[in-house]
Amino acid sequence: MTMLITGATILDAVSDKPIEGQAILIEGKRIKAIGRRDELPVPADATVIDATGKYVIPGLMNANVHLLCDIRPETLLRYEGRYEDLIAESAQVALKSGQTTVFDTWGPRRALMATRDAINDGKVIGSRVFCAGNVIGFDGPYSPDFGATHATVLSTRFVNRINATWVENTGRHLMWLTPKQVAEELRTYIEKGIDFIKYAANEHGAQSLGAFISFSERVQRTIVDEAHRAGITAQSHAMSVEGLHMSVMAGCDLITHCNITGPTEIPDETIELMVKQDCGAVIFPWSEKGLQWMRDNMDDGTWTTVKSTDNNARNLIKAGARIMLANDGAILPKDLLAEPAISKGWVGAPEEMNFGLLATGHFVWLEAMEEKCLAPMEMLRAATRNIAVAYKKDADLGTLEAGKFADLVILDKNPLESAKNYRAIGRVVKEGAVVDIDALPLNRILTRELDPAAPEEADYKHFAHKGQRFPMCTACAIVAH
């Protein structure tokens, strides 16, 4: 199949200025050529899309999502054996919103890989998925790393099965091992077919807000070296200034939520080192409205951490770090968002300022970064080319160039004039095929509406109400309510 897109302004994420007066010729799954229409070899039977007055950008990418993030027992019990269905639904929600490629950085490896392969084989529609499986050094969903309280009300057999499904041979036991032993375990995991490695420079926020260092410098370097030896990228989960610095020194290709460093701002020397080594900076940003909402809904101690996060983001931008769009994007079911403990944490922030939602959070991310003065063309690159480069996928993805996959989004408005215009999606094209975005997701499970109330609920009187806490990540919020 051949397709020709004409009349649009092209923002290819390579050029510093918009490209006018040229068309995009697509043959099969890839871009054949970009040039003047009268100079392109267009077959007579080509499908022509007249995009006059519109703007064509590369398919958006997300450097850090969680396609199966609802780890509550009611979800994992109800859908055990159907995790691929939940992941496919998330991949379709991502695709609907212009994210043609996503990188899943924590989840059940086998189900993620099965869905990834089904999408690649054309059996399932969805955003292109690359996955890491478990975060190296994390324990499972029903452990102190995430939600140990669930283990007290579930059977030991089920708890062990769920934790094993996520962790396999990559959990906390690695912290006891020598670098050589860690390397052996890592090679075993890589051979199972994951696309990249993510490891814990800091422990997860459920225990001490991420302050503790998980692995020594020697082990961190070993993990990165093993990933590179296998030809895949290595990234870290860092949540303190020392965890961040150690990750950069270890040679990480990118660092997840690197602007979250507790109440302490990133030292200039660490930022300079990141820029010098071209270490990708995955940033979680708040808009001005979001910051005000957070200030109104948290204690002073937590607010200190949020202020530090915001200042770190601004400093990384000023220093010229390679910025990447990512947001822990996940589907949060309506019953979860209705929980009182969720509604006052960042996971439960109103949609218009919540960067953690898979369907809309990337738009909020772009709008927040615009407020922090990231240049318009750099915002586009942060959502496309920079991610492809960091993950070493730029031979096929990230820009509109001849030979690359024909992943693109046609916008009705100019994104360089306002970040809000990224929401004006007219069409999404993935691998040369127009996506029926109105039909997605095909099978609503986690995105379904709430079940109607039982008749007895009208007569039920609450004896006590739940308290509230401020979770530092989506998964913590889900298990802590």
Describe this protein with a few key phrases:
17 helices; 5-stranded parallel sheet; 33% helix; 15% strand; Urease, subunit C, domain 1; globular; TIM Barrel; 481 residues
Would you write up a description of this structure?
By secondary structure, the chain is α/β, with parallel strands linked by helices. It has 2 domains: 2-58 and 403-439, Urease, subunit C, domain 1 (Roll); 60-390, TIM Barrel (Alpha-Beta Barrel). It has helices at residues 73-78, 83-96, 109-120, 156-167, 179-190, 205-208, 217-229, 241-250, 268-276, 288-296, 300-319, 334-337, 340-343, 361-371, 376-382, 385-390, 474-480; strands at residues 2-6, 9-10, 23-27, 30-35, 47-50, 55-58, 60-65, 99-104, 128-131, 197-200, 234-237, 254-256, 280-283, 323-325, 408-411, 425-430, 433-434. A 5-stranded mixed beta sheet has the order 2-6-15-16-17, with no helix packed on it. A hairpin with a 2-residue loop joins strand 3 and strand 4 (30-35). The longest helix has 20 residues, at 300-319.
- The total count of strands amounts to 17
State the CATH architecture of the largest domain.
Alpha-Beta Barrel
Mean pLDDT: 94
From the alpha carbons, calculate the radius of gyration and give it in angstroms: 22 Å
CATH domain topology of the largest domain:
TIM Barrel
| CATH class division of the largest domain | Alpha Beta
Main β-sheet description: 5 strands, mixed
What is the percentage of strand-forming residues?
5-15%
The number of helical segments is 17
Report the structural category.
alpha/beta
Summed up, the domain count is: 2
End-to-end Cα distance: 50 Å
Low-confidence stretches: 466-472
Helix content: 25-40%
CATH level 4 superfamily of the largest domain: Metal-dependent hydrolases
Major sheet strand order: 2-6-15-16-17
Shape: globular
